[in-house]
Amino acid sequence: MHAWPASEVPALPGKGRDLQIHDTATQGTISLAPGPVARIYVCGITPYDATHIGHAATYNAFDLVQRVWLDTKRQVHYVQNVTDVDDPLLERALRDNLDWTELAERETALFREDMTALRMLPPQHYIGAVEAIPGIVPLVERLRDAGAAYELDGDVYFSVESDPNFGKVSNLDAEAMRLLSAERGGDPDRAGKKNPLDPMLWMAARPGEPSWDGGSLGPGRPGWHIECVAIALDHLGMTFDIQGGGSDLAFPHHEMGASHAQVLTGEFPMAKAYVHAGMVALHGEKMSKSKGNLVFVSALRRAGVDPAAIRLALLSHHYRADWEWTDEVLAEAVARLERWRAAVSRPDGIAADALVEEVRAALANDLDAPAALAAVDRWVELQIATDGDDESAPGLVSRTVDALLGVAL
């Protein structure tokens, strides 16, 4: 599966700062100083109802991570999946009387278009669940053969008790885990499971549903968590720098995936930092497919909204915050974009070397994009109010905003 084209990232003078970022597992800020190649895995979409603002906010956060790392003169090895076969996708295809593959391809294509318009840097590896199946089957077999998985009516489940570090990503108690498991795709009440929290690794073929050759597992399809584990281990190995996604993935998805990987490899942890973006609400409720209260990036673009303004709206909120999308949020972003463009369109201006360092410092401090925007706002106000004589300043500000914030002025 191919990703989307990369926009050019301008080079800035000097060198950026190492990233300090909030880690869900330790509930604190940790310093990340990767080697020459920084490694990040971000969980991708299940391709239906793409791309809503909640998606965009999440991928914007991890785009900032890439930009901070690139500014430190590192390479970035970024991997993202597409869950192009799963129950919600099959249910939507049935509802809309569509072939599930047609729905997945259409929505993935739309996602690529939106990511391109928003200037999100693409992953080096963009892998669909279906194409990963040949690598998933051996992992499930290994877990089963090691006694870390068991069969139940043809399905194969992972035993969470096989991992002594289970629970160290989300730090939730058993009752909270059970409630979230039921809410987020698990089946804690299924009879015969050794532990209600045990997640499915391989689903035996169901009538009328797609299935693949599972070798000794029999025909079927993979569970949700093992999909990401297979892709991450194949392309990044263990102890990569960041495992990322929305905050609703901390449990069960990232918790279960970490346990799968840790049992498979005997290493801990799967990732140095587990980083989660907040949820976006609309009309007081979390924006979600189940509620149908979605604002789509493509619809905003069709209505003539500049993608740079959409991106500024996302950047105006800290990535870990839960916030609400409103007309006012977008209007403020549109107005900010106009001010910034007017300021950098002047032939000369106020010196901007200090601004570059302010933006770098803000983003290195747990991706504090609102502080970065405020720094640019201050420069813009001075630029509009004062006659400067630095001919290089407008271009430097424009390159800084592009390189570090992904906004083309």
Envelope shape = globular
Unreliable spans are none
Largest sheet features: 5 strands, parallel
Helix content: 40-55%
Can you count the helices? 13
> What's the CATH architecture name of the largest domain?
3-Layer(aba) Sandwich
Structural class: alpha/beta
Strand order of the largest sheet: 5-4-3-10-11
Brief summary of the model shown:
This protein has 409 residues and is an alpha/beta fold. The chain has helices spanning 53-71, 87-95, 100-117, 129-145, 174-183, 224-235, 250-265, 297-302, 307-315, 327-344, 353-364, 369-385, 393-405, and strands at residues 19-23, 28-32, 37-42, 75-82, 125-128, 149-152, 155-158, 200-204, 220-222, 240-246, 271-277, 280-282, 285-286, 323-324. The relative contact order is 0.16.
Give an account of the 3D structure:
- The chain has 409 residues and is α/β, with parallel strands linked by helices.
- The chain folds into 2 domains: 19-277, HUPs (Rossmann fold, 3-Layer(aba) Sandwich); 305-405, Anticodon-binding domain of a subclass of class I aminoacyl-tRNA synthetases (Four Helix Bundle (Hemerythrin (Met), subunit A), Up-down Bundle), CATH 1.20.120.
- Helices cover 43% and strands 16% of the residues.
- The protein has a 5-stranded parallel beta sheet with strand order 5-4-3-10-11, with helices on both faces.
- Strand 12 (280-282) and strand 13 (285-286) form a beta hairpin.
- The longest helix has 19 residues, at 53-71.
- 48% of the residues are buried.
